[in-house]
């Protein structure tokens, strides 16, 4: 991407260590106390004044108002990580903070930032080897998968709830062969966390999806036993006289005749549905009002405007073949369900289809006192799902509680002592940095972080490579304690942290970019593309390494993509 001006030249202002390193440190400092099973909660108050009490790293991060551009780069990188990996947000933030801190010391001692970045990259490859060595394979049916799930949710709720959620999540996942597409989460405010439940079947959310159901439940019929299910992938309607536009009405008698004709068409439609022994009619689009009432009267449950994903799931689970129009409906295309039930959940209504003969489908009905709590519960369960799927997908698991990072520490420190050039410094710094995880776990458990670290080093040195910091703060075997995580989690945390620290370290200074022509409307459009932060400030990073190709980073997606417009941006850079 062509930037034309000062960004390519040596920076004219001092590299402001605080500007660039400060935000990373601040984010890490904010999150440190939330790490692990003893992590304390943060009270996050958003702009609208609503309050969330949480110790989930991603939620805290979302609640932070970060003005510094570098801070936003870091937050976005961590968010991207959280989206892809599902766990390890806090860990990543702490690692970024520590890697930046360590780099700062090295740069002060005269090491060039690029040497630090290179040293970190080489440390990363040793780190990966160390984690691989620690990895134990697991089978989808293993008890370990359950332990992975409960490790991921430890500290979010009381121990019993954590265990229960881990159990229902893993049981549900197993029943759908770990296919996330067949497991749906529904969060409903109102009620207690303990009212959350696993439903083997499909829940159709009648409020969220604007689906409406008439004549069902209102007259006391709440459950249909063993119904047939017809799926219409379109709308159910009868042609009305107005719609056809060809009828001329000259007298009240004519009008009555037209209405009579419409009613006859409706009755015909309803009869044709009822005649085919349809008990539940699930329609992807709308069902005309009069037909709905008629259907309900004829004993057919009409479900209209069903969300596409729910519609498809019902088709597969009920073994039904969707048709585009009611006229195409054949008996052998009807699906079945063991029962269809209407339920009121926290002020909302759902239709529950269970006992389905086709492809298995699971739903988790998650409850929480307020919309925020319900959503937070959903978020935690999503993380739990993600790690359980990672673990079951064959990648293997490593002991948690900082055991993985201790192994990384040893491997990288070992390597540092065997090289005799300057890169040893960066390796050493990296090794030190990763111990932030066991240190923070120990401190949060009320134990002395240095004592814990010494004990960990000794135990690992003696071959007890599963030694980590337990919930009590004591050092013990994490496999025995059932504290395990998919190797993908620590590995990806380290990768994200190294990449993000590298990004920050390579920044020499922050420059403001302004449009050359200053034209209002269009200029904004361009900003939107190039700078997903969308705040009206562009930021260019001179790379400062003499490549002579100053470039712009998009702040916002954390991947540094520039938006891909050809021919550069209409910007000029100025200080
Ligand atoms: P993150 O956002 O990084 O996932 P968490 O607050 O979830 O942060 O803490 C994760 C860390 O806590 C991991 O290092 C994990 O191994 C550790 N951990 C989780 N449960 C336990 C436990 N019961 N005992 C010791 N460590 C645990
Ligand atoms: Mg976690």
Kindly describe this structure.
Keywords: ATP-binding, Chaperone, Nucleotide-binding. The chain folds into four domains: about 240 residues, GROEL, domain 1 (Orthogonal Bundle), CATH 1.10.560.10; about 90 residues, GROEL, domain 2 (2-Layer Sandwich), CATH 3.30.260.10; about 160 residues, GroEL (3-Layer(bba) Sandwich), CATH 3.50.7.10; about 60 residues, no CATH class. Helices cover about 45% and strands about 15% of the residues. It is built from 19 helices and 20 strands. The strands form six sheets. The protein has a six-stranded mixed beta sheet, with helices on one face. Strand 1 and strand 2 form a beta hairpin. The longest helix has 25 residues. It starts with 16 loop residues before the first helix and ends with a strand. The N terminus and C terminus are likely disordered.
Bound molecules: adenosine-5'-diphosphate, magnesium ion
What's the CATH architecture name of the largest domain?
Answer: Orthogonal Bundle
Number of helices: 19
Sum up the overall morphology in one term.
Answer: elongated
Mean pLDDT: 82
Question: What is the chains' assembly state?
Answer: single chain
Protein name: Chaperonin Cpn60/TCP-1
Pfam family, one: Cpn60_TCP1
Family: Belongs to the TCP-1 chaperonin family.
Region (Disordered): 1-21, 513-575
